[in-house]
């Protein structure tokens, strides 16, 4: 061991500290770049349009937030849209958690004829770009009469390949076969095993999927834009886009206030689940 | 792998193998099929049937209201010769490349630095991840103002250092750079977290050994970190390709005001009109459902080709 001493000179405390400071300096610059657009949105949402259009640009928050918010609420049904977004995101999250974890439990822990094939099909579906089907989806929904209602957003999203795949990966390692066998000896049937053995163990995995689903639904834009044909009954993202489309060039302060307020529920959910989602995202990706 | 929670009871040793092999049929397994059925039923109703229908549609002329007219292969013949479609492919690929390569580079640098940093790791991870959870619509609105010609921050900065202003959202390259910047900003942190997780699986002894062999930081990165990070890189590249080639919201929200007759125009000279934007324009602005369906299949083909290329590129090295 002693012989390799000196092949590389040991770093002094000083050197390590200097390197640490440089490292954090770069990381902080990155952090500021990440955060900047949020700050910029706050600046713009607190100024009048004339202030926004002036040069040099304002770099500190102004005092017109309440006025901007008032004209926002006058122009679009902000809270109505927010309610729609919440309704869709919550309903989809609940359904996805239930259906995906149930299917994942089956794929992770049981063998049955066609299991491999069905899973391959699932993975293939995972890869299919969804836009492909938007026209017929629209036509089918129009036939059933769901176009213009939130049902058109909720039902098709109620189960998905990603969630099943994710939960299956999680369950394979988290649920022990011995535990399942023991519960079977105790007389537990399939549903009891799912509810009492599987779910309690995979709660962290569910939390990730739930937060992820909620955020994805909250931010979904293309399909709601097409499916919600009544401009007065839309989700928040579509309402924001309408606002930008109509008033984008005239009242930036108001548009920016809308963008900012629409982020609030999302940021709350993210703050609650950040640790979970950031940690699990990595685990899922490296498998 | 995910951490394994501690068992509450000592494991019961059984004679049977843990997974029961199938022996007798349907009655034994119906509850398993029932449990997985919701996904497949939803997929059949809102995935398979629509996809089949869209294939059928692509051989027809239809405005969405009247009766369908058989068109044979003419929609596809037109698609192949449609210069607008080809230019939308070009736009998409340029935007994707402008966004993806800087994004992967920055994400990897960030991940390596995060891996080296001991303190505040969670603060950084939270802040870096934030852009990815915010809605593209809200962020596109913000970036629209940052890149605005008249009062945008980027131009104000250019002016401050004495450079010419650029009409970002009015020139072909400006549009692409603006969209790509938005995408890069939104995805660097997300992918850095994924790379970080990959980095953390690399055993410390390897670095220790490399250090003892006298390898410098760059050598260590290229000889140890990068090869071992290849599966993670594949994941990141595939996800970026599939999402990047189907980008829509960024360009749509950023450029929806630039044309009076279409919110899917993709800006002046259609420089920001991605494939999916073109699909929406043909379908919902022109009410050309048949041609829209053909465009959708064209997009699908492009995405598949790129996914295969990606897969090959990274996979082949694995087999060596």
Describe the protein:
The complex is a heterodimer of chains A (287) and B (320). Chain A has helices spanning 13-45, 49-53, 65-75, 78-109, 115-127, 134-144, 151-154, 161-174, 177-185, 190-201, 203-219, 222-227, 236-247, 252-286. Chain A is an all-alpha fold and 287 residues long. Chain A has 2 domains: 2-45, no CATH class; 70-286, MetI-like fold (Orthogonal Bundle). Chain A starts with 12 loop residues before the first helix and ends with a helix. The model of chain A is unreliable at 1-8 (pLDDT under 50). Chain B has 320 residues and is an all-alpha fold. Chain B has a domain at 76-135 and 175-319: MetI-like (MetI-like fold, Orthogonal Bundle). Chain B has 13 helices and 2 strands; from the N terminus they run αββαααααααααααα. Chain B has helices spanning 26-57, 74-81, 83-116, 121-133, 136-146, 153-160, 172-200, 204-212, 217-228, 230-245, 249-255, 275-285, 289-319, and strands at 60-61, 69-70. Chain B has a two-stranded antiparallel ribbon. In chain B, a hairpin with a 7-residue loop joins β1 and β2 (69-70). In chain B, α4 crosses α7 (172-200), α10 packs antiparallel against α13 (289-319) and α12 runs antiparallel to α13 (289-319). The longest helix of chain B has 34 residues, at 83-116. Chain B starts with 25 loop residues before the first helix and ends with a helix. The model of chain B is unreliable at 1-18 (pLDDT under 50). Chains A and B meet through α1, α4, α5, α6 and α8 of A and α1, α3, α4, α5 and α6 of B.
